[in-house]
Design brief:
The complex is a heterodimer. By secondary structure, chain A is an alpha+beta fold. Helices cover 34% and strands 18% of the residues of chain A. Chain A is built from 17 helices and 18 strands. In chain A, strands 15-12-14-13-17-18-16 form a seven-stranded antiparallel β-sheet, with helices on both faces. In chain A, strands 5-6-10-8-9 form a five-stranded antiparallel β-sheet. In chain A, helix 8 runs antiparallel to helix 13 and helix 13 runs antiparallel to helix 14. The radius of gyration of chain A is 24 Å and the shape is globular. The N and C termini of chain A lie far apart (61 Å). Chain B has two domains: 166 residues, Uridine Diphospho-n-acetylenolpyruvylglucosamine Reductase, domain 3, CATH 3.30.465.10; 170 residues, Vanillyl-alcohol Oxidase, Chain A, domain 3 (3-Layer(aba) Sandwich). In chain B, helix 7 runs antiparallel to helix 11. The longest helix of chain B is centred in the N-terminal third of the chain and has 14 residues. The chains are: A alpha+beta, B alpha+beta. Chains A and B meet through helix 7, helix 8, helix 10, helix 16 and helix 17 of A and strand 7, helix 6, strand 9, helix 9 and strand 14 of B.
């Protein structure tokens, strides 16, 4: 079927207004939160309901067309880019279907914005724990696709730990229920397999999430240091002490100053070379004891000052500076490259030292703002992609940083996903058979590989197995009656 | 035993098309489930901690490492793996992950799915697959760690795992509250506990039969484990004391609870919405079928029923227990252990859907690994 005919059919489902095909209209959808990558989609379609979504997916399936599911487009790995194929935007599916306060769960459509869900359940003393820094814009569907994290995942866990069940439409148009929203089930954890599949397994039509009771007390500490190394060592010491802070965030000098220059100024000390933002929560009595201990660790580790936010206003201001730090980088240069490597937490001091020497070697300014408690680094470099020489240096520096993190026993991505951006590193952390096992899992959900093609696992890593034919038609085993197993 | 020898065993079985029954130490999770295999592949000798940096709070161990060994090693650094599945503590970490078994501590620390960071396994083709890693946050690649957890060895032979550890709490105290009186009174008490400012490590409501065996008297009892720094625990002790008489008992009671059921070959779980399980908990534990142990994990919405009486250890026992469960909770049954002859009558396969079947065909195309253990 030709493009205009497909367009017409999709318009018949969602309405004329909600199918875009002119290049100028599609420009908005040619990148995500990582502006270094651009891919132009062929079409973008925006269903408003579950039925429309299913009809769209079935239409695409009937025409054997590839597509990319997209939430708010805040992703940081190029995962939501559609290279001359169809974007299925889900931001109009934004109903909070139900909230079950007693059982602490909510069922939402994929386009519901993370923060909106949190505001909706706050009056019940509950919250949805995963809190990506983009929570004011990003959607629950996108969070599921990326297995999103956030500062408070240190204590509360990532999206995976908070999703109970999903209704999913597979790329074939078939609808399946994964997980269970009424209790625990036996069987393969298809829910777990789907979360973090980056849109390659299909898309969620609804998501049932766990809600968490709001802690009795929250205390936020700001510790500032005159040396990056001291702050890194204090981070390792806090983690090793066994206290599990709700969040433990690190910002280095360049980041502090860029935030303080911006409209998000949080009152961080401009002359500090590093700050730690440490949040402790729980029962008041216990939190006070932990605050005292964390303070002691910071001061022993040569913190210049440790300040505890007096009230919620001050607390939220401290957080705003952290959450908007990436946005503030926009002041430095038109483009930003962000990494997401994770390292063992005891390696933090050495890795930050390594990053520093790499930045000097290539003459680039690396801003470090990251989830230190998890060992989840976000070194980022502001640069101009229009300057080829600078781009080259930035690219080389980032590659070297990634290699150092891998060598430290780390991972290439903690929460942003592989997408397009980190696909080239997959073979440096996974063996051929491991990548192939991932390809095969994908092949079960999406045999034709039409959903978000060309992402996550490099296609050349997917072997076509000689055994495929026999796998489909396994040789019958000799008849052997079930018998009790010796214990 | 090593990954290489597991590969050799699986390849050999593939060549000869002779399926394998995968076993850890065969202590406790064999579950009486029917496995259509004459040959056993034991991981018991493949044990030992491979990597443990206490400051990272992560540990990598071979699959045959026992939970008690991990407990011993981590305790030396004031840490623990907060997984306390029912059964003998010499059961292996590999079996715990393969069966996704959890115990009372799951209330605060989650199940193996929440604690597993990375995995190495050998597929039914003899390929070594490694997924996840050694860091606490990781979204690189599709999540095969979750997929393998609870797959009962049918997608791959787990050879090594990396798990997240926690610091042992400075204060770890356990209270017993006797639930005298009506079913309603028990539900009321649990409702008040739910609303109280406490966040227990574990909270199990156990039947009078369990309480008696544990030496806690002859009434149904609510066991509450509080952990954390002393200030947090003391605060919670006071909050609980306001709700009624609570006796402090030795935390050892949790170890006793784990092994209480011994070799019982009949264990089922009913899983439902937490609020309905809480409301029905009183009724659940008031039943006095001889030889039946019932415990309720309110937070997870799970009622666990163990039948130890050999006389009722049959298909009839299922009906008896099922009868006593009919009324209050809507939920689904998960069969943990059944007598061999009972499996056929109760177990429509939990992996019969097209996606699960597709995954099984991809990872174990010749159906060599624990065939039949999840039903046919």
């Amino acid at each position: 079927m030709e493009l205009p005919a497909v367009r017409e059919r999709l318009a018949g489902i969602v309405g004329e207004r909600y199918v875009l095909s002119r290049p100028s209209e599609l420009l908005v959808y040619n990148s995500d939160g990582l502006p270094g990558y651009r891919r132009q989609p062929k079409l973008a379609v925006f269903p408003a309901t579950r039925d429309e979504t299913v009809a769209v997916i079935r239409t695409l399936a009937a025409q054997n067309l590839s597509f990319v599911p997209r939430g708010a487009g805040t992703g940081l790995s190029g995962g939501a880019l559609a290279d001359d194929i169809v974007v299925v935007g889900l931001h109009r599916l934004k109903q909070i279907i139900s909230v079950d306060v007693e059982n602490r769960r909510a069922k939402v459509e994929p386009g519901v914005v993370n923060l909106r869900l949190n505001r909706h359940v706050a009056p019940h003393g509950l919250f949805y724990a995963p809190d990506p820094s983009s929570d004011a814009a990003c959607t629950i569907g996108g969070n599921v696709a990326e297995n999103a994290g956030g500062p408070h995942c240190l204590k509360y866990g990532v999206t995976l730990n908070h999703v109970l069940a999903m209704t999913v439409v597979l790329p074939s148009g078939e609808i399946v229920e994964l997980g269970s929203d009424t209790g625990e089930r036996d069987g393969y954890d298809l829910r777990g397999a789907f979360i973090g599949s980056e849109g390659c397994f299909g898309l969620a039509l609804d998501v049932t999430v766990k809600l968490t009771p709001r802690p009795q007390t929250i205390r936020t500490l700001l510790a500032d240091f005159l040396s990056v190394d001291d702050a890194a060592r204090v981070t390792s010491a806090v983690i090793a002490s066994g206290i599990v802070p709700a969040a433990l965030e690190f910002m280095d000098g360049p980041t502090i100053r860029v935030v303080e220059d911006s409209i998000y100024a949080a009152g961080y000390p401009r002359d500090a070379e590093a700050i730690l933002l440490i949040e402790l929560d729980g029962l008041e009595a216990g939190v006070d004891a932990d605050v005292a201990e964390v303070k002691r660790i910071c001061l022993e580790g040569r913190a210049r000052n440790v300040k505890v936010a007096r009230d919620d206003v001050e607390r939220l201001k401290l957080w705003q500076g952290r959450k908007k730090a990436f946005g503030a980088m926009g002041r430095l240069a038109p483009h930003l490259i962000v990494q997401d490597a994770v390292i063992p937490r005891t390696s933090l001091p050495e890795i930050l030292e390594t990053i520093h020497s790499i930045s000097e070697k290539y003459g680039v300014v690396v801003c470090n703002v990251f989830h230190a408690g998890d060992g989840n680094l976000h070194p980022n470099i502001a640069y101009s992609a229009d300057d080829p020489a600078e781009s080259e240096r930035v690219h080389k520096a980032m590659t070297e940083i990634m290699k150092a993190c891998i060598a430290a026993g780390g991972s290439i991505t903690g929460e942003h996903g592989v997408g397009l951006d980190k696909m080239g590193y997959m073979e440096s952390i996974f063996t051929g058979p491991s990548l192939n096992a991932m390809c095969e899992l994908r092949g079960v959900f999406d045999p034709e590989r039409r959903s978000n093609p060309g992402k996550v696992v490099p296609s050349h890593a997917c072997k076509e197995w000689h055994a495929v034919a026999s796998a489909r038609d396994p040789r019958p085993l000799a008849a052997d009656p079930p018998r009790p197993v010796a214990r | 035993m090593s990954t290489a020898s597991v590969v050799a065993a699986v390849r050999d079985s593939a060549d000869r098309r002779t399926p394998l029954r995968i076993a850890g130490r065969a202590h406790w999770l064999a579950a009486g489930r029917p496995v259509n295999a004459r040959t056993s592949l034991s991981l018991a000798d493949d044990s030992g901690v491979v990597d443990y940096t206490p400051g990272d709070l992560t540990l990598t161990a071979r699959a045959g490492t026992s939970l008690s060994e991990i407990e011993r090693i981590t305790a030396g650094h004031g840490q623990w793996l907060p997984l306390d599945p029912y059964g003998h503590p010499d059961g292996t970490i590999g079996a715990t992950i393969a069966t996704a078994s959890a115990g009372p501590l799951a209330t605060a620390f989650g199940t193996p799915r929440d604690l597993l960071l990375g995995i190495e396994f050998v597929t039914g083709r003899g390929d070594v697959v490694r997924a996840g890693g050694k860091v606490v946050k990781n979204v690189a690649g599709f999540d095969l760690s979750r997929l393998l957890t609870g797959s009962w060895g049918t997608l791959g032979v787990i050879t090594e795992v990396t798990v997240r550890l926690y610091a042992r709490p400075r204060s770890d105290r356990t209270l017993a509250v006797r639930l005298a009186g009506s079913e309603r009174a028990a539900a009321d008490f649990l409702g008040r506990v739910e609303a109280a400012p406490i966040s227990p490590f574990a909270l199990e409501v156990v039947s009078a039969s369990i309480a008696k065996t544990l030496g806690l008297g002859d009434q149904a009892t609510c066991l509450i484990r509080l952990g954390g720094n002393s200030a947090a625990v003391d605060f919670q002790l006071i909050a609980l004391s306001r709700l009624g008489r609570a006796d402090e008992i030795e935390p050892r009671v949790w170890d006793a609870l784990r092994v209480l059921e011994g070799d019982a070959d009949f264990v089922i779980r009913l899983s439902g919405l937490p609020a309905s399980v809480r409301a029905a908990a009183g009724a659940m534990i008031s039943d006095s079928i001889p030889g039946v142990y019932t415990s309720v994990n309110v937070a997870r919405g799970i009622v666990r029923i163990v039948v130890t009486n050999p006389a009722s250890s049959s298909v009839n026992a299922l009906r008896d227990a099922g009868l006593s469960l009919e009324r209050p909770v809507e939920g689904s049954f998960v069969f943990e252990r059944l007598p061999a002859e009972a499996w056929k009558s109760v177990s429509p396969s939990v992996v019969s859907d097209a996606l699960s079947q597709g995954i099984k065909r991809a990872y174990d195309p010749f159906n060599l690994l624990n065939p039949g253990i999840l039903g046919d």
